[in-house]
Amino acid sequence: MTYTLYSHDGSGGFAVEAALAKAGAAYKVVVVDTAKGEQNRPDFVAINPMRQVPVLTLPDGTQMTESAAIVVHLAAAFPDKGLAPKPATPAHARFLRWMFFMAANLYEGDLRYFYAERYTTDPAGAAGVKSAGAAHMKKSFAVVEEALSQDPFLCGPTLTMADVYLAMLTAWSPEPITSSRLQSVARVVAADPQIGPLWLRHGFGK
What we know:
Blueprint: E1 2-7, H1 13-23, E2 26-31, H2 42-47, E3 55-57, E4 63-65, H3 67-77, H4 90-114, H5 126-147, H6 161-172, H7 180-191, H8 196-201
Parallel strand pairs: 1-2
Antiparallel strand pairs: 1-3, 3-4
Helix pairs in contact: 1-3, 1-6, 3-4, 4-5, 4-6, 6-7
C-alpha cells in the first residue's frame, strides 16, 4: 500500500507530503523539476494534462490532482491519525470551509502574483494581475486571521491539516506576514516532529 507523490520542493506538494507523513503512510516522491520543463514530458502530461504538481497516485493506481482535494482525501483515508476533525461535526465543517477557502483565494492569489502571465493575453497587463493577486492574498489572510481570534487553530484547539496548509501559504506570501496569529500557526507547524524536516527541506524555514 504505497502512495507515489509527484512533486518538487517548495510546491503545494509540501502539504500532501506532510499529510502522508502525519498519517504514517508508505510513500515515495518522484521529483518533477518544473524549472527544467519536466512537467511537459509526455509521461507526466498523461498523468496531469494541466502539467502541474502535485499529483498523488493512490495505492490502487487512481491519480489525484489539486493539493487541497488530496489533503481532504488523505484525512478521510486515515481517520484515526487526526489529520482533520471527525466527519459530520461542526469542527469538520470548519475544516472543509477553510481548506476550500484557502485553495480558492490564497492559493489562487499566489498563482496570480507569481505566474501573472498565465492570467493575461497582453504582457503589459501582467503587472496589474500581479498587483491584484497580492491584494487578494492580503485580504484573504485578514479573513483567516480573524477566524483565529477565537481559537489558536482553524478548527479549534487542535492542529489539523488545515493549519499545515495555511502555514505553507504564509511561507509563499509575497509580503511579510506580521500577524502574530498566523505566525504562531506557522511556528507550531515548523516545530512538529514529523512535519518540521519537510518544512526545512521545502525551503520554508528561511
